[in-house]
Amino acid sequence: MTEQLINHRVNARGGGQQGREGARAPAGTRLRAALRDRRLGETLLHATTAIGLVHHADHVLRADHSGWPFTAQVTPFTASLLVYPIVLLALRARSRPWLRVGLVAAVYLATQVAHLVVERPNEQYHAWARGVSADPAALGQPNLLGIASPALGWLAAGWSLLLSAALLATLAAFVVEARRASAR
Q: Which of 112, 166, 169, 173 has its CA 20 to 30 A from that of 40?
């Protein structure tokens, strides 16, 4: 029994013959192995965090939905930066899979509310496409690059949708991992 456990851990980390063969396995097999080894959720969370960082940079460049520490005002953008400590906590909570699910679910729900109520995709689009904010509260404030580009508008709105999809995929992966951990 102990030898089987040691062999499983060695193979899961890429050691041993099976671990090396797994690196050359088809994508579907690697995905199933990642789900088994509880690494897919973390990988997706890292990727989602990178997408979120680019989205926050877009906020700063658009200026209509930016805030402290990039402007003097404390805004919903400022509160949205709390996502990063929550992500760090989710990454560190390996031994508590349902806590990870809850943390990622909270981030997902907060993002959805923000993008449906506070900053809709059409506002993201118009800040770039017209070169000024469509948000009445921003009083037509231009983006910081001072350009009008419909392509950048589509990219900003699409990136926001990509962030939502990535968060949903991350949440699903953590739910699968938590259910598997509970079944053990």
A: 112
